[in-house]
Write a structure and sequence with these properties.
It contains 17 helices and ten strands. By secondary structure, it is an alpha+beta fold. It has a five-stranded mixed sheet with strand order 1-2-8-5-3, with helices on both faces. A hairpin with a 2-residue loop joins strand 6 and strand 7. The radius of gyration is 24 Å and the shape is globular. It binds protoporphyrin IX containing FE (HEM). Protoporphyrin IX containing FE (HEM) binds next to helix 6, helix 12 and helix 17.
């Protein structure tokens, strides 16, 4: 009996403390004019529920509070916007005080000149320099031949093997970028660079605790190692008479380049290019392989498009710009994959001053999660939204529609969209014209907070 009374007392005490803490956190963030919502626990907020329930958490909160609500996730008081019009407004109005709001760990590791860390005229300069690097003529004349050459060699000798397509697409995204940046994909520097880059990526997704055995600590150290390698590369290029035709040569060419960057900016620009195109391109490629496996009719149509291109060529002929432009169905497969898998759930902004949005008052320094995931499953825009149907993208200029946020929107819209699509298209070209594949089975796929196969996605490959 005595034990029962003590236990009852402990449970009651815990309940009272929990209620008091939850209440205290609500009161702490109570301010006139804020959107409705709950703030969860002190410090942790609702992060656990958000990570555990993912999209279901967002939908629950929307059902309770509407399209715009407040929460406390990933260490910050946050406004979540699932309102398409407001999302568009936020993305279009950086100059009104709605700047990128990515976590400190990400900004520290990607560098203070990285594009997400800079605003105003510095952003214009960094973005201008980047757009010049990935413009259609640059893709046509310089990058596509490099991508083609890389994919041919990366996709050779897969026959009669079991391949982890997640691992292969990750290596592909990284090494293909490194080839376009500085032709390093088969050098000893690439072998040193790759593990450092993977540590850097992990570090950007961690809590900013700078100790040697934390992901952040390792990521930060990896950044320093990468910066030294790139600094050495810049010195070697300056000391040598050799001419190069790659992204780095363009960035270093101060005479012909309209956008002049310092060495520090060039290094952060390179890290940004590697980082931004890494997970997006690799995960979209992996998920395209998954959906094509599950939808034989789509695979048949895609293969038809690629075999028709191959038929007009000798086996050794590379893909050219006209071939790429003719891949209409492939483009549709890539967009449908990005939509259905939701490779990017949304983007983060923060307020630089108190402001009014949709009639609510948003305090200075609050994060805004422009959550675009749900729009991908809106049946008014995409009939039968859960069906993988690339044909829907052929009907109208769907990627020009008003609420197409797969590549973001406004002043920060993805500058690498065309390059990313060209890389994935070239990968698919060589994959479907060379191989057939079967899933080994038993692999799990996670959809939130990132799309990933925790133990890999294994396929058995044979010749086509
Ligand atoms: C399927 C592939 C890709 C997807 C789905 C994608 C998606 C996105 C999204 C949603 C944003 C907006 C971020 C924001 O508003 O905060 C973005 C920005 C960006 N992307 Fe991509 N991306 C892809 C490929 C690439 C590639 C290959 C590059 C390499 C050049 C790249 C470079 C960037 C950069 C530098 C930004 C920041 C732009 C700025 O802040 O002005 N992306 N991307």
């Amino acid at each position: 009996m005595a034990v029962f009374i003590v236990l009852f007392g402990v449970v009651l005490g815990l309940c009272l403390i929990s209620t008091a803490l939850l209440r205290w956190n609500e009161v702490k963030y109570r301010k006139k004019g804020l959107p409705p919502g709950t703030m969860g626990w002190p410090v942790f907020g609702e992060t656990t529920e958000f990570l555990k329930l993912g999209p279901a958490f967002m939908k629950n909160q929307r059902a309770r509070f509407g399209n715009v609500f407040k929460s406390h996730i990933l260490g910050c008081p946050t406004i979540v916007s699932m309102d398409p019009e407001l999302n568009k407004y936020i993305l279009m109005n950086e100059s009104k005080g709605l700047v990128p709001g990515y976590p400190q760990s990400m900004l520290d590791i990607l560098g203070k000149c990285n594009i997400a860390a800079v605003h105003g005229s510095t952003h214009k300069n960094m973005r201008g320099a980047l757009l010049a690097l990935v413009s259609p003529p640059m893709i046509r004349d310089i990058l596509l031949p490099k991508i083609d050459d890389f994919m041919r060699s990366h996709l050779s000798h897969w026959t009669a093997k079991i391949i982890d397509i997640q691992e292969k697409t990750k290596e592909m995204a990284f090494m293909s970028s490194l080839k376009q940046i500085a032709g390093l994909e088969s050098s000893s520097m690439c072998r040193e660079f790759m593990p450092e880059f993977f540590k850097l990526v992990l570090g950007t997704l961690s809590l900013p605790i700078n100790l040697p055995n934390t992901n952040y600590g390792r990521g930060f150290q990896a950044r320093q190692n990468i910066v030294s390698m790139l600094r050495k590369l810049l010195q070697e290029r300056r000391a040598s008479q050799e001419t190069h035709n790659d992204m780095l040569a363009h960035l270093m060419n101060t005479e012909e380049n309209r956008y002049k960057l310092s060495d520090e900016e060039i290094i952060d620009q390179i890290i940004t290019i590697l980082y931004s195109g890494y997970e997006t391109v690799s995960t979209t490629s992996m998920m395209a392989v998954k959906y094509l496996h599950d939808h034989p009719r789509v695979l048949q149509e895609l293969r038809k498009e690629h075999l028709a291109i191959r038929e007009k060529k000798r086996p050794e002929d590379p893909l050219n710009w006209n071939d790429y432009k003719s891949m209409r169905f492939t483009r549709a497969v890539i967009f449908e994959t990005s939509r259905l898998a939701t490779i990017v759930n949304g983007v983060l902004r923060k307020t630089t001053k108190e402001m009014e949005l949709n009639g609510y008052v948003i305090p200075e320094g609050w994060r805004i999660y422009v959550y675009t995931r749900e729009i991908n499953y809106d049946s008014r825009l995409y009939p039968e939204p859960l069906t993988f149907n690339p044909w829907r993208w052929l009907d109208k200029g769907m990627d020009a529609q008003n609420y197409f946020f797969i590549f973001g929107g406004g002043t920060r819209q993805c500058p690498g969209k065309e390059l990313g699509v060209a890389e994935i298209s070239t990968f698919l070209h060589y994959f479907v014209t060379k191989y057939r594949w079967e899933e080994v089975g038993g692999d799990k796929l996670m959809k939130f907070p990132r799309v990933e196969a925790p133990n890999g996605l294994h396929i058995r490959v044979s010749d086509y």
